[in-house]
Design a protein that fits this description.
mainly alpha
């Protein structure tokens, strides 16, 4: 039973990590777009 709980927690953490990395990636892309939109860059 304990092993099952640990396994579930690991899956949950991975999902949270994926969500965080997705948000981070989108922010990076957004920042890149903003920088490119300034004159003299890109």
């Amino acid at each position: 039973m304990v092993m099952v709980l640990t396994n579930f927690r690991n899956k949950e953490t991975k999902l949270e990590g994926d969500k965080v990395s997705q948000c981070y990636y989108q922010q990076l892309r957004g920042a890149g777009r903003v920088i490119k939109s300034y004159p003299g860059h890109g």
